Amino acid sequence: MRMILCFAVTCLWVSTMSINAQQPEPVQQPTDYAALDRFIHEYTDEVEGGNGRWAFVIEGVSVMVMADQAADRMRIMTPVASVADFEDGEYERLMEANYDRALDARYAINAGVLWSAFIHPMSSLTHEQFDDGLNQAVRLSTNFGTTYTSSDMVFAPNEQQPQDQPRQDEQPHQHDEPAPPNRGAPPAPRS
Fold it and tell me: Per-residue confidence of the chain (191 residues) as pLDDT tens digits?
């Protein structure tokens, strides 16, 4: 009798687990212009535009969101600086930052203006991804000339020394930001 009871309880438990495992996860509706508009209005009601083109200010930073449903693309952008005002070595610092300190947002140049930009397919963009992308784009903009970072995380898997130690072949930057780490030898070419 005890064996039959244990068997029955085990069967009930297994069937309950398989029913729970078969429950489909909720399907996210594709993000469209209306969803982007809702995401943006959670930050501010002072928004210009709509229907694929929005402009607003967050933490003193001008932000533009551009989207195209037909192309399934969305871009969050902030103007950072005029390229004409760059100091010597600025391009190299930007490219190094795009490698290890700018995560999902990146520095980009268009028409003589440096931008921070987060780009993502529009239809699969979640609310959390929009929030993260907006925060990274704003932070990358405000950290230009100092740490050049978009978050607290730094992705540098090949570092040979801590980030706050300057490379042996480089003078410290004039902006008092941490010098880029020594990244070691470049990868060998493919044969």
Answer: 666 655 555 555 555 555 555 666 667 789 999 999 999 999 999 999 999 999 999 989 999 999 999 999 999 999 999 999 999 999 999 999 999 889 899 999 999 999 999 999 999 999 999 999 999 999 999 999 999 989 876 665 555 433 443 334 444 334 343 333 332 333 333 33
State the pairing for strand pair 61-68/73-82.
antiparallel
Q: What share of the chain is helix, strand, coil (3-state, %, to 5)?
A: 30, 20, 45
- Dig out the tokens for 60 from the structure: 């003193």
CATH number at 102 reads 3.30.1460.10
pTM above 0.70, yes or no: no
Which strands, in side-by-side order, build the sheet including 48-50? 48-50, 53-58, 61-68, 73-82, 113-121, 105-110
The answer to whether the CB of 54 falls within 8 A of the CB of 64 is: yes
Count of domains for the chain: 1
State how beta strands 53-58 and 61-68 pair.
Answer: antiparallel
- Domain with 66, as residue range(s), is 33-142
